[in-house]
Amino acid sequence: MTHSIAPLVSVTSAIYNTGSALLDMIRSVLAQTFDDFELVMLDDGSTDESLELTRLVVDPRVRVYGNGRNRGRSFSLNRLTELSRGRYIARMDSDDMSATTRIAKQVAFLEANADVDVVSSGIIYVDAQRRPLGIRYLPTDHAAIVADSYRHIGICHGAILARREWFERFRYDESIPIAVDSHLLLRAHRHTRFANLGEPLYYYRYTPSFTLKKQWITRRVVGRY
Question: For residues 72 and 177, is the Cβ–Cβ distance under 8 A?
Answer without folding.
Answer: yes
